[in-house]
Amino acid sequence: MSDEKSLLTGRQLLIVDDEEFSRLFVVRMVRDLGCTNVLQAGDGIKALQELAAHGDGVAVVVLDFNMPGANGLQVLKAIRTGQAGAPRDTNVLMLTGNSDFGLVGAAMAMDVDAFVIKPVSLNVLTDRLTKMLRDPREMKPVEIYEAVDVDTVGGRLMGGRAPVATLMPKPKARTTAAAAAARKGVGPAKPLPGTKRVEFDQLTAGMILAEHIRGPRGELLLGAATVLTERLLNRLRELQPVIRLEYVPIMVKPEE
Questions:
Q1: pTM of the predicted model as reported, rounded to 2 decimal places
Q2: Cis before 87 (ω within 30)
Q3: What tens digit of pLDDT does each residue of 177-225 get?
Q4: Which residues pair with 137 in a beta bridge?
Q5: Do residues 115 and 93 touch, judged by C-beta distance below 8 A?
Q6: What distances in angstroms separate CA 232 from CA 44, 115, 183, 254, one per listed residue?
Q7: What digits encode the pLDDT tens for the residues 29-48?
Q8: Superfamily of the domain at 176-251
Q9: 53 in Cβ contact with 77 (< 8 Å)
Q10: pLDDT tens for residues 128-176?
Q11: Of all helices (H) and strands (E), which one includes residue 132?
């Protein structure tokens, strides 16, 4: 049996999605990867019940954002704050659609372990799970996760307002050229003093954002002054097929 086919052998997974077709599609894929112990939940409340009953044995939670009862952000927060009956460092992979990027910032603040853009493919899911189960990480103190306001963010999602989750005031209008550049993450034509534009593929851990990184419709993903960690960079790489960043403004030291 190949390594890929045995990736999830002996592991228990919880698949949470209110769309039955999507949920069963993912269930079939994780079974193809060797998982014979799959729990399912059609909403966030059921997911929390499953975690309360089986949380100590769940290796990975595959979690949709937009669900009734308790949304994906609320379930993730319950896990990270120790309120879900599962270890705080339980691996959480979140499924996201093109309209969910306003929620991504909150998920990253709660150390989500991976994103997969819908529709889910076996190759992408395998890649995310392989890295997730291989790479170690540490949890922040509980109070850091408690401070993330997922109820407000999730409320915008469930309320159907647009933009789904703008986490900061709408920026002032820009010229057409500047606005187009900002959407690509390239910033102004001439970098501001103390900053430089770095190609997305050249970003490295330790760099500090000079400007906000936003999603396709202006949703805030990461705020200016955020220190890029390898974990955050991995999340951005997973979202890159949709956010399509070309350049990112980075703070530089005077001697640079």
A1: 0.82
A2: no
A3: 444 444 444 444 566 778 999 999 999 999 999 999 988 778 888 999 9
A4: none
A5: yes
A6: 25, 11, 19, 25
A7: 999 999 999 999 999 999 99
A8: Molybdopterin biosynthesis moea protein, domain 2 (3.90.105.10)
A9: no
A10: 999 999 988 889 999 999 999 888 876 665 554 433 332 333 334 343 3
A11: helix 122-134
Q: In this structure, are strands 220-222 and 213-214 parallel, antiparallel, or unpaired? A: antiparallel
Q: Which long-range contacts (CB under 8 A, 24 or more apart) does 86-91 make?
A: 86/51, 86/55, 86/56, 86/58, 86/61, 87/55, 87/56, 88/139, 88/142, 89/137, 89/138, 89/139, 90/55, 90/58, 90/59, 90/60, 90/61, 91/59, 91/60, 91/61, 91/132, 91/133
- Give 12-159's CATH code, choosing from 3.40.1180.10, 3.40.50.2300, 3.30.70.1560, 3.10.450.50: 3.40.50.2300
Neighbouring residues of 217: CB distance < 8 A, sequence distance ≥ 6: 101, 102, 163
Q: How many CB atoms lie within 10 A of CB 8?
A: 24
